[in-house]
Design a protein that fits this description.
3 strands; mainly alpha
């Protein structure tokens, strides 16, 4: 009987250690993926600034490129590792969104929503996030990746440029 109890304790300890290891690994993987997404937004934004400075592409009255040419990235397009493949790559803000700092839809709810949103009027590039368990988790992830400080997911007048 004693041997059986010792074996059960050992099994429970192994299961506990395995669970802790799995949780640690899952957390590290999630952190790595969100850091990759943040780096891709930064790389995209840097290319927008570079193309603005080079002035070799059509620019608007504020000096930002009107569109984004995938050739700028030499075959290495920025990607959003948080989203599954199959999403369109980029949405350029429509004229009625010209004063927005963030896209109205910040969550890629289905595969028709592009990974990135670019506003040529402001020069901002934003990446969308996948749906999370809560709106708070989604807005926290969105803020981290895009370097923003939103308090809610949905568009409001406070996000417009002046």
């Amino acid at each position: 009987m004693r041997l059986f109890m010792d074996a059960m304790i050992a099994l429970m300890l192994l299961a506990l250690l395995g669970g802790l290891f799995w949780q640690h690994r899952t957390t590290k993987t999630a952190e790595r993926v969100r850091d990759e997404a943040k780096a891709e937004v930064y790389r995209f934004q840097q290319q927008i600034h570079l193309q603005s400075a080079l002035a070799k592409v059509p620019r608007n009255e504020r000096g930002y490129p009107e569109t984004v040419d995938p050739d700028w990235f030499n075959g290495n397009l920025p990607m959003n590792p948080l989203l599954e493949s199959g999403h369109p790559w980029l949405e350029v803000a429509s004229p009625d969104q010209r004063d927005l700092i963030h896209p109205p839809d910040r969550i890629a709810t289905d595969k028709s929503v592009p990974m990135f949103w670019y506003n040529p009027h402001t020069g901002y590039i934003r990446t969308r996030v996948p749906p999370s368990m809560s709106d708070d988790a989604s807005v926290e992830l969105y803020n981290y990746i895009n370097g923003s400080f939103l308090t809610e997911l949905f568009a409001s007048g406070a996000e417009k440029t002046k």
